[in-house]
Structures are given as structure tokens and as C-alpha cells.
Request: fold
Amino acid sequence: MPQGGCKPGGLYDLASKRWQDEQKALVRSLFARADLRDTGGIREGFEKEADDLVSLYFETFHAHANPSRRFWRALSVRGTDLRAGYLSHEWRTLLWKALSRYKGRFFKIGMVATYDSSTRTFSRHWISVTVGPNAAAWGERTLIFDPWILGHPKVYSSSDHERGNWLGTSFDEDIGPGGTLLDPAGKGTGGELGPAE
Reply:
């Protein structure tokens, strides 16, 4: 994990700046994999939106990652999977709310989870960022924002991340996120579910 830059607007050292630039380059690389004629896009606009999304991701992580919260939560929750102070569904919700400020035209944001229909439970959660008109859980045009895995803001390609079988694109403050169950090919097979706790 690169050091420095613990808060948005804080002083970043060279390694942190380079790390953030690498994550931006990964999102920018989707330009070559997408036919942007469908969205009437140009490279400069696409790259600006890609950089803005990664900046929001980093700002959200640094605003919420809290070693002391992680310590106290670990003592009180005992044995749960806290990373940088939060469970995976908490990181998902924090990122979803922050990324809701994104009003661009090139990317669609989705909440993804692993859902076990036999026990009716969710086990893991993350955010997907997809080029095109529809959010997707995975694919060549989709990248994953999942700070829970390593406890820092890394961008993953779909092939480097586990697959989810639930995709949500709406969030209700009272009932939580609604979503659709996916079959192994990624096609929707179920209706809206919620809340995903």
C-alpha cells in the first residue's frame, strides 16, 4: 500500500500519486475496449470522467478509512471481516453514495454482491463501473472498485476479481439496495431484492 495522502486534499508522497495515476490509467484503458460511437464520446471527455471517478473513489476511501475505528470495531464485533474499518457491504454503501455525485455520460455504476439463494444471505459486496448504457457485474467493459479486499483503494479488472451473482442499480434509504439475481452468464433471472445486509 502506498503511503501518504491519508485525507482528501492531504499531502501525497510520490508513491501515493503514482498509485492513483496507475488506477486512473486502468479506468482510462476501457476507452480502447469500448465502441464509444454509441455514446457520441471523445477521448478527452472519457478520460476526464475516468479520472473524476477514480478521484471520488480515493477521496471516499481516505475520508472514511480509520485505523482506530478498525481497532475498536474488531474488538466489539470479534471475528468479522473488517478492512480499513468497515465490512464489505459498508464500503459498498459508502462508495455508492459518493459515486452518486457522478453525472457523466460514459460510465454506469452498479452494486455487486455474492448472494446465496439457499440461505437468502449476501456474503460479499463491491461496486462495478461499466462503460456503456447499462451497469454490469463483470465483463471486458467493467472494472471493480473494492477497497475491502486489501484495505486500500485498488481498481480491479473483472478477470482479477471474484464474480458476483447479484447486481443492484438503485438504493432506497429505508429498505436498502434493490437488485437483480444473475445467472452464470450474467443475465438477469430475478426481480428486485432488498435490503442487502
About this structure: The helical segments are 14-28, 30-33, 43-64, 67-77, 88-99. DSSP finds five helices and six strands in the chain. The longest strand covers residues 121-131.
